[in-house]
Amino acid sequence: MDFSSLGISPSLLKTLANQNYNQPYPIQKEVIPAILNGKDVLGIAQTGSGKTAGYVLPILMNLRANTASKNRHVNVLVLVPTRELAMQVREVFRLFGSALPERIKSLAVFGGVAINPQMKALQGVNILVATPGRLLELVESNAVKLSNIETLILDEADKMLNLGFKEEMNRIFSLLPKKRQNLLFSATLNEDVTKINQILLREPLVVKIEPESDHIDLITQLAYFVPEEKKGQLLRYLIKHNDLKQVLVFTSSTYKADNVADKLRNNGIDAKAIHSKKSQKARTEALSKFKSGELRVLVATDLISRGIDIQFLPYVINYELPRSPKDYIHRIGRTGRAESSGEAISFISPEEEHHFKIVQKKMGKWVTMIDSKTIELHGY
Fold first, then answer.
1. How many CB atoms lie within 10 A of CB 369?
2. For residue range 315-324, what is the model confidence (pLDDT) as tens digits?
């Protein structure tokens, strides 16, 4: 099954081909026809499952029939938990929307930046991607009206609830018209998500995509046994010696992320850190340069990485192991997506050795270990 058989228009098919989207993901096969037909959808799927394009494509097509937007009355509302995800989703709307002959305007709004430019930018917006807190601020300022919403999307609903947005979400729901299409996407189906499903969705199509264990088999995993104080040298050696490009490095703290990026730059490797203590402008700039291939190394923390969705990322390096095996799988799952294989490398200090055994056991896969003593790191 290809995208054309799902009812996608020729102009969007062309953009899909340009972006190397050749075959739809399992979730896209299910949800695209349902959304095109105006049905409500409950999608349970992990990050990297293709869910964003799964709702973006049919929403753009449904909007084409009715692109006229009354001043400050948006047609489509996408609620997301973080500003990184807001920017990412808006970028997907922009990418595919630019291929259409009709002018469809999308905008991402979130806290942590000045509200006035966002208020001005809301003029003539069809699709609004928003974090709950900032959306309510804009509603209270009369900068946006929600009475004409035709489609509501909750993306990463479980994370929104975990971050304590329940009250804000209920206030937003009360401002929406009764007659609308509702799409709910979540990585897990917990009690709170189930309640929202019961309140919001009418006879939804329920799609549950199990995390593909064979996806991990696409990833070449390798681990280096290395003392903590030698990790920096090993990282620089691997990047320089193997001429690695577009490398995503994970650390466990913001301090360590800055420290690793600084030392890489001091050794002639173009690197930037991205974490919650960086300004929004700095994060956006670093992410944009990394995605385009202009930035060689991006050093990130787990929290911020949720908003990073880069197709076919070639290398992920765990400078430090995450706390849970689930987060380890989440990290390495950023490489080798679709049919493209990737490489995940982990640095294991003596203190992390026991924890890494637990990670491997949970994953059901044993990773080849190389002792860094066999590598000449002097000069790196």
1. 14
2. 999 999 988 7
